[in-house]
Design a protein that fits this description.
5 helices, 94 residues, mainly alpha
Length: 94
């Protein structure tokens, strides 16, 4: 199991750094992941964080594990599947 305190030390972050990550994240999903880490750092359990964010606790655990492996860069989100974002769709498809 990943201890958030140990991971923060490993990646040279603290609660303030998590909060800044939450505020500066470019997408809502990334903000949600940083928020989850911040709540974990405040002593919340994965189950409680999952309930608050309406996510499965296993999802919260996966985000924590990803943070443990990849650090801040692991909190990024890339669209997988579905239609492309509106800014990339062609205006006049033929």
């Amino acid at each position: 199991m990943n201890d958030i305190g140990t991971l923060l030390t490993r990646w040279e972050l603290n609660e303030r750094g998590l909060r800044e990550g939450m505020y500066r994240a470019p997408t809502p999903r990334e903000r949600e992941r940083w928020h989850a880490l911040w709540l974990l750092s405040r002593g919340w359990s994965e189950a409680r964080v999952g309930e608050a964010l309406e996510r499965d606790p296993h999802t919260i655990g996966q985000w924590l594990a990803t943070f443990g492996e990849a650090g801040p860069s692991g909190m990024g989100f890339e669209q997988a599947g579905g239609p492309p974002p509106p800014s990339t769709q062609r205006l006049n498809p033929r």
